[in-house]
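User: Run a structure prediction on this.
Assistant: Running it now.
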Amino acid sequence: MKKFQARGKLLISAEYMVLHGSLALAIPLQKGQTLKKIKSSNPSLLSWRAYHNEDRWFSAVFKLTTLELVESSDQDKALDLQKLLRACVNLEPHFQTELRAWDVETHLDFSPEWGFGSSSTLTALMGQWAGISPLDLHFSTSKGSGYDVACATADQAILYSLRNNEPRYQVVPFQPPFASSLYFVWLGNKQATGKHLTEMAGQLSPEPEDIRQITSLTQAMLECSNLSDFRKLMEEHEENIAGLTGIKRVAETTFPGLKGSVKSLGAWGGDFVLIATDQEEKELFNYLDGLGLQTRFSYKDLVYGS
């Protein structure tokens, strides 16, 4: 048995705009996904089981000769997995032989509803197993930017951009001295994050200055050394994206009276938000309890390497 590991992610800046060339800041998480190869019980079939905690949240069986779907608990997820498997074989034909020897179990450290990257971590895991570039695999199966796949194997934050549709990224230190004042909160609205981001980005028509402005905010957020300035950058970023998308800021729709600043991370309206505040944690959590927002993490409890 061999195990592969990949990390979840959060996009701190340039949501929607990373697909238009803006520089994005993304962070890897302590929570991720593992893939275990288990000796096959049937050399003509590939059995796939996916777990969150001890609960199986997805399963599928494929014919190994054609990777035709035999049965599944979720047709759409199974077809996405089939696409990924076939892409692995196309990029590395010897992988077809490798598949004959194994069944697969995957284990998520986070709820698949949270938008931490159940799909991107799987792409990274499959790339590792097949011995191919996870980003090559991503771009053969998805129209997303790929920042999440790059983040899945990173040990620190990354700066990520697309130049002429080619990904460029570098690992950067991002350990803000005010990290104890940063919190991540799930809004509780499940949505297909990758699909939403791609669709929304496709509807935007940013000017070159818009792209440069988001890049400038990303760089400023990375270099910021105090909470007050970081909050101003968060709010300016929210104003810019709201102006481009026509979507109301989450501060207006969800967090009345918040003693701090809040910024959407990734898809607006459904995924996690970042809260920056100098409130005591107990006071903040009481406020969040009043909004019915129970899923929240401090920076040090979620960010990898913090």
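The chain has two domains: 3-171, 174-302.
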